[in-house]
C-alpha cells in the first residue's frame, strides 16, 4: 500500500515509512486497516500530527524494543501531544540483512547506512565482520536501503528481510542482528475516547510526574500500584525538561481501567501526582492472562467500599 491523496480519517492510517518497514509490518496486523489508505511518514511527530489533524484515524508507532528498551521519541511525543489514546499493541520480530547495490561484495563494504537503533542491534556482527567500517545514520531501516540507489556514500545498508521485494538490491548477509529473539512492540494511537472492553489480558499505559524531587517520591508513586496488587511491565523515566531533577515516568501496568484494583490505583495516582496522563487500556498483544492474588479481586474492593458506606450510614447496624 502506498501514500495517496487525503481521504476521510476513518479510512486512513499513518506509519513510519517507506513501505517495507517493521512499522508497516505491525500495521498489517490490524484487521480494520486492511484495504484502507496508508500514509507513510518520516517520524513519530508526523504520524501523531496526522492523527491530531484528522488526516488519519490512527497511527502505528514503535513503543518499546526488547533489546534497547523504550523508544524515547515516542514517549516524549505522547507526553506532549494531548488527546491521544493507545487502542492496541502489536509485536514484530526484528531481524536484519545487509544489502548493497548489485555487484557489490562484502569485501567492498567500507561504510554502512543504517538507522541508529538497527545499527546498535547489529554491532557485534558489524565489528567482527566489517572492522573499521563507517556509519551513516538513516531515518528508517527502509530509507537506509533506498538511499543506496540515490547517490549515497554508503557501500551497504542494514535493512529488514524482504527489502529486495521493494528495491533492486542484493543481500550480502542475513540474520546479522545480535539477538535472534529481538522483538519490537508497536502501539496503535488514535483520538478515540472509547476504551476497548476488558479481556482479562490487558495493559494500561500511563505517564506520571513525581510531585517533587525529594526522598521517597518514587517509592510513593510505586506504592500506588504495589498496595493494590498491580504489576508493572514497563517503567522508564524521561526528563520533563523544565529543570534538573524533574522527571516523568512512562508506565505500563498489567490490567484494565475497568478492573477495581487498577481503578483504585489510578485514583491514588491522581491524588499523589500533579500530572497523570492516561494513555489507554487495551488488549495485550501476547494475550497473556493477568494473574493476581485473590485479595485483589474486584469483589474485595467493592465490599470494602460498601463496608465504609455502612460505617457512615447512621441507620447501618452491621459491621
Automatic annotation (TrEMBL):
<feature type="domain" description="ACT">
    <location>
        <begin position="206"/>
        <end position="284"/>
    </location>
</feature>
<dbReference type="InterPro" id="IPR002912">
    <property type="entry name" value="ACT_dom"/>
</dbReference>
<dbReference type="InterPro" id="IPR001086">
    <property type="entry name" value="Preph_deHydtase"/>
</dbReference>
<comment type="pathway">
    <text>Amino-acid biosynthesis; L-phenylalanine biosynthesis; phenylpyruvate from prephenate: step 1/1.</text>
</comment>
<keyword id="KW-0057">Aromatic amino acid biosynthesis</keyword>
<dbReference type="GO" id="GO:0004664">
    <property type="term" value="F:prephenate dehydratase activity"/>
</dbReference>
<feature type="site" description="Essential for prephenate dehydratase activity">
    <location>
        <position position="184"/>
    </location>
</feature>
<dbReference type="InterPro" id="IPR008242">
    <property type="entry name" value="Chor_mutase/pphenate_deHydtase"/>
</dbReference>
<keyword id="KW-0456">Lyase</keyword>
<keyword id="KW-0584">Phenylalanine biosynthesis</keyword>
<dbReference type="GO" id="GO:0005737">
    <property type="term" value="C:cytoplasm"/>
</dbReference>
<dbReference type="InterPro" id="IPR045865">
    <property type="entry name" value="ACT-like_dom_sf"/>
</dbReference>
<dbReference type="Pfam" id="PF00800">
    <property type="entry name" value="PDT"/>
</dbReference>
<dbReference type="InterPro" id="IPR018528">
    <property type="entry name" value="Preph_deHydtase_CS"/>
</dbReference>
<keyword id="KW-0028">Amino-acid biosynthesis</keyword>
<dbReference type="GO" id="GO:0009094">
    <property type="term" value="P:L-phenylalanine biosynthetic process"/>
</dbReference>
<feature type="domain" description="Prephenate dehydratase">
    <location>
        <begin position="12"/>
        <end position="191"/>
    </location>
</feature>
<protein>
    <recommendedName>
        <fullName>Prephenate dehydratase</fullName>
        <ecNumber>4.2.1.51</ecNumber>
    </recommendedName>
</protein>
Amino acid at each position: 500500500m502506498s501514500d495517496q491523496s487525503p481521504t476521510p480519517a476513518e479510512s486512513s492510517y499513518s506509519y513510519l515509512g517507506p513501505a517495507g518497514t517493521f512499522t508497516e509490518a505491525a500495521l498489517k496486523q490490524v484487521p480494520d486497516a486492511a484495504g484502507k489508505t496508508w500514509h507513510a511518514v518520516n517520524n513519530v511527530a508526523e504520524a501523531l500530527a496526522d492523527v491530531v489533524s484528522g488526516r488519519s484515524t490512527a497511527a502505528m508507532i514503535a513503543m518499546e524494543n526488547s533489546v534497547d528498551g523504550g523508544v524515547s521519541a515516542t514517549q516524549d511525543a505522547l507526553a506532549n501531544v494531548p488527546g491521544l489514546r493507545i487502542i492496541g499493541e502489536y509485536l514484530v520480530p526484528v531481524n536484519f540483512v545487509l544489502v548493497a547495490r548489485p555487484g557489490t561484495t562484502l569485501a567492498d563494504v567500507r561504510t554502512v547506512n543504517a538507522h541508529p537503533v538497527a545499527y546498535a542491534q547489529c554491532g557485534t556482527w558489524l565489528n567482527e565482520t566489517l572492522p573499521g567500517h563507517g556509519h551513516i545514520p538513516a531515518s528508517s531501516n527502509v530509507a537506509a536501503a533506498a538511499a543506496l540507489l540515490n547517490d549515497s556514500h554508503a557501500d551497504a545498508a542494514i535493512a529488514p528481510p524482504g527489502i529486495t521485494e521493494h528495491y533492486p538490491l542484493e543481500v550480502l548477509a542475513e540474520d546479522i542482528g545480535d539477538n535472534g529473539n529481538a522483538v519490537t512492540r508497536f502501539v496503535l494511537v488514535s483520538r478515540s475516547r472509547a476504551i476497548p472492553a476488558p479481556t482479562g489480558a490487558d495493559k494500561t499505559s500511563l505517564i506520571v510526574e513525581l510531585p517533587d524531587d525529594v526522598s521517597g517520591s518514587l517509592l510513593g508513586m510505586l506504592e500506588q500500584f504495589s498496595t493494590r496488587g498491580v504489576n508493572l511491565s514497563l517503567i522508564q523515566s524521561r526528563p520533563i525538561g523544565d529543570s534538573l531533577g524533574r522527571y516523568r515516568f512512562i508506565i505500563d501496568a498489567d490490567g484494565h481501567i475497568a478492573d477495581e484494583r487498577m481503578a483504585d490505583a489510578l485514583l491514588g495516582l491522581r491524588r499523589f501526582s500533579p500530572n497523570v496522563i492516561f494513555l489507554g487500556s487495551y488488549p495485550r498483544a501476547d494475550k497473556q492472562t493477568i494473574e493476581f492474588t485473590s485479595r485483589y479481586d474486584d469483589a474485595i474492593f467493592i465490599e470494602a467500599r460498601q463496608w465504609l458506606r455502612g460505617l457512615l450510614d447512621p441507620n447501618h447496624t452491621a459491621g
